Amino acid sequence: MQATMKVAPTGTGMGPHVTGRKRGTCIVVANRANLEFILVVKIANLMRFAPYLKGGCVSYMGSELIIKNLHANIEGKAILRGVDLVVKQGEVHALMGPNGSGKSTLANVIMGNPKYEVTDGEIWFKGENILEYSPDRRARMRLFLAFQYPMSIPGVSVANFLRRSLEAVREGNKPLEEGDNPTGKMAKRKSIPPREFRTLLQEKMRLLKVDNSFINRAINDGFSGGEKKRAEILQMALLEPEIALMDETDSGLDIDALKIVSESVNALTGPNLGILLITHYQRMLNYITPDFVHVMFNGRIVKSGGKELAFELEEKGYEWLKPVDEENEVGVNG
What we know:
Number of helices: 8
Distance between the termini: 54 Å
Shape: globular
Helix content: 25-40%
CATH class of the largest domain: Alpha Beta
Order of helices and strands: EEEHEEEEHEEHEEHHEHEHEEEH
Number of domains: 2
CATH superfamily of the largest domain: P-loop containing nucleotide triphosphate hydrolases
């Protein structure tokens, strides 16, 4: 008797809706003898549960970022002109292209930057169309954007910023319903016990080989280019996003800093993290191996392939991929 089992982690918005689920559990949709069973199982017990489906198979359904026919403008100027892309947990995607092709714009639109107006298309994450969600709510859903040019915030320590960010993400993505807070005052945030935060932070710092003195400095204030990017990656490690958008992380880095930052990114890759790595050059891909490479031209993805495509771009440049009907068009600002 053949049986199959599909598994969706809680909070993904995938599979059937089951009330009363807790973090650390998953939905199991089991098919056996033409009957479908819906169960909630602790992830830790999943493999112990699987043998009861004799001869069956188990697949883990992680989060997906799905972009469909996305168009976006800034100040009335078209930038994205029909982007289609799917990034799954556990995958590393490299998005390449010439200056002004729309790569950074795509990352900002995904995170909900209000400077950009979406005129058509959809952005789906965890089974929800997030186009109307605020950047804050998208971040609480565990989308993450590492900026090309991180801002300095004098007077706010890295440690304090990371702690408040983690508390916000742990609150979850559902906003208060109207009337839940009738006083109009901000609800008191449930804080993370200092000991728990220190333990978690030290764990991530050891993983990324970050010096203890780093977290006592003001955010990006007086940081080198490499230190700013490492601060972004430390934040990513602590917040544990499911999909991370990395906007030209190699920008402004010398070869030594690039190696250090790449090692930090590699330390975080795995089945729980999907990455969209935006870059102009193949050099970063010497250290971070992508599963997929996409090329963007004039607001569209014009070619996709495996890691070998990056080497071909290094050798040939981008002009050979320029669509014939766009040769006379002016490129958009990215």
